[in-house]
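Entry 12.
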Amino acid sequence: MATVQHLSIKPRSYGLGWLMRSIFLLFALACAAGDGFMFLIILRNPAPPSGILLVLIPLTMCLGIFFALASFRYRLTLDQESVTLVGVILTRSLRMHDIKGRRVWTNRNGSYLAIEGKNPGDKRVVVSNYFKVDDEWRNWVATLPDLDDADRNSVMDEITRSAELGGSPEERLANLKNAKTTAVVLSVLAVAAGASLLLFRQRIDVRLFRAIDVFLVALPWIALWMHWRSPLLYSIMGGKKDPRPTLVLLPFVGAFGLLISPLDNLLIAHPMQLAVYGCLLGLLLGYLLYRASSPAMRKTTLPTVPLMIGFVYSLGVARQANMQLDASTPREIQTVVLQMNYSSGKSTTYYLYLPSWERPGTAEKVAVSKRLYQSVSVGDPICVTTHEGALHLAWYTIQTCSTPPRI
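Predicted 3D structure (tokens):
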């Protein structure tokens, strides 16, 4: 691996660009205005201030101070001895002789430069694109070994030398090309399966819906099996320049696709118990996905990402198992609409208030589809179909009494 070149470097310091600095200052001003408004409420109200205000005022004040300091304190420094990132609270620094190289991280917020150290305990310096840097900085960064390229070359070298992949380098590269085609086909099938449930969930035959669910359940394990069987041909969460095709779409689509139900107005009596039933499966899948990630990704990706996929997957599996394997006899209860309302935000949620079928004398607030909400009025009859659940977690569907439940 190439080493860091010790060039003659004049001490340099780089602050945030004007756009990011302006955004931080606007946030600080917004926090100050919010605090002023809350103080005005307290002064005009003779009653003692509420607990919420007593919490919000110092919290907003701290946020305002943080944003104000961030706009001026965030700084990147470079000199002959080290590179340092100064933050509001933390400061990260690497001495020149301890620098191993650079990587590029990419997420939905943009790209980040990660400067890594040679020693296991070294904290990497992660630099965003928000700093106003110059050519001297860019030239210095260009002298650092590209660790993404080094990882790619190392994997390619292993592939071309692996006797398990063929008798010649050409045959091994041909197998890699075939693996890329296989990964693309599987990813397209996975996305098509998830999209079909999302777009046509109420039109698909129930038996076909169940078959697609089985396919979605198998997807994460198919990805893991393919990676374990041929680690030089497939990756789960590879690095930025990993030459192997990634299978990450399979567990991702499998996890979120299982949350789609063929039923509108579906309620689970105790939804958090679904997570309890599936927690071990979720932890196992999350751990295996994390372990199957490339070493570079394990450094740059928090375990929360594969654990999140595992949690969503386990929730979907438990929910579908509770419904699809339910052999109990459905019971229909006819009731009436007591009250109706809706809440608006990024999306609109519609609610019906019905006499509780579990706790007599109380009312159940249930979220329903817009179509059902607009088809009923207060006082109208409505039917609730109850199911015991294969996992003994009761689930319900709500529909007009003239509309039979789908399953």
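Annotation: Residues 334 and 383 are 4 Å apart (CA to CA). The mean pLDDT is 85.
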